Amino acid sequence: MTVSLDELMAALTRELKPEQFKDYCPNGLQVQGRAHIGRLVTGVTACQALIDAAIEQKADAILVHHGYFWRGEDAVLTGIKRRRIKTLMEHDVSLIAYHLPLDAHPELGNNVQLAKILGLNPGSALSRQNNHDMGLVAQLPAPMSGADFAALLAARLQREPLHIAGSEAPIRTVAWCTGAAQGYIEQAVAAGADAYISGEISEPTVHSAREHGIHYFAAGHHATERYGVQALGQLLAQRFDLQHQFIDIDNPV
């Protein structure tokens, strides 16, 4: 089965409501390809390796969390950017990208999907952005040590987290926000969390964790944001009877 690109984009707009977000990049169709889609590849970032792998799988469109044309970047099409877009256009493959709308979606979003992977039951929002929940908070069924929680993250995400043990106290309440949301550690403290999970870490985050007495886990930007785009791809595959494949291009960050 195939679906028209216009129909697919209309469905994505209804589902993700990108017009409600003030984002760092354009959300939606970023590079237009062929008019009908039967094979959809999803991935985290539209790097050259993902594009090449998708073309090898004869994809009609690629759906990602991290696309192109970020705010503040040079607008000229040279170097890496030229090669990526040239490859897409030569093979008539569409590139579709959703950033904050995919983070915040209440069912398909990266934060909700990460909770499912970790077996957490979100109880409240960590913060609000664009009038949407950004990050979540949950109570653990039973207290865990920082070391045991780090082992849980490693097992579920297949990546060893960087653990900043700001406290020796057990973890009862966990807050998280995927990707490069280490700056939300202050909101996690305000929410009464014993631990905060994000994807990345910056130098000030270490001191914040230690001085606030909170466990901080840098679990990987890529590792924490693999799941929303997969859930979205699966939804589209079921709705439009598409062939869907998630391609994971490993990234240690």
TrEMBL record:
GO terms for cellular component: cytoplasm. The keyword Kinase does not apply. GO terms for molecular function: metal ion binding. InterPro entries: DUF34/NIF3 (IPR002678), DUF34/NIF3_sf (IPR036069). Keywords: Metal-binding. The keyword Metal-binding applies. NCBIfam families: YbgI_SA1388 (TIGR00486). Belongs to the GTP cyclohydrolase I type 2/NIF3 family. This is Nif3-like dinuclear metal center hexameric protein. It comes from marine sediment metagenome. The lineage of its organism: unclassified sequences, metagenomes, ecological metagenomes.
